Amino acid sequence: MLQEFKEFIARGNAMDLAVGIIIGAAFTAIVGSLVDDLINPLIGIFVGGIDFSAISFGIGDAQFMVGNFINAVIKFFIIAFVVFMLVRTINKLTRPKPAPAEPEAPAAPTTEELLTEIRDALRAR
Q1: Residue 69 contacts by C-beta under 8 Å, 6 or more apart in sequence?
Q2: How does 61-78 read in b/e, with b if 16+ C-beta sit within 10 Å?
Q3: What CA–CA distance (Å, rounded) separates 74 from 33?
Q4: More reliable by pLDDT, 100 or 85
Q5: Which domains are present in the chain?
Q6: Residue of 19, 28, 74, 101 with fewest CB within 10 Å of its CB?
Q7: Model pLDDT for residues 9-21, shown as the tens digit of each residue
Q8: What is the pTM of this model?
Q9: What angle do the packed helices 66-94 and 12-33 form, to 10 degrees?
């Protein structure tokens, strides 16, 4: 079982996944700060100083934090857009370039042209 585990870890897929998760966690912290510290205040300027995280309402003892949900939606769209741009850029860089067009071979003679040549060659004899 230990050997099997070593083979699993040694495969590139497991290491790539681990690196992706670690980078994703760090990236989430950066995007969270971007949204909370830069974008939400900017949006607040345009909507009259509203701080989304303060938006909430309560029913009985339950408190619904609508502002936190709005922040999460904004973060999601920013992360999705950045990932889209990253994948698009990587695809452009790694896309194989089309092979240069080969020069077209001369068109083969038609059956009529061949028969005409044969006839002319026979007449010339």
Answers
A1: none
A2: eeeebebeebbeebbeee
A3: 12
A4: 85
A5: 2-97 (1.10.1200.120)
A6: 101
A7: 676 677 777 778 8
A8: 0.47
A9: 130
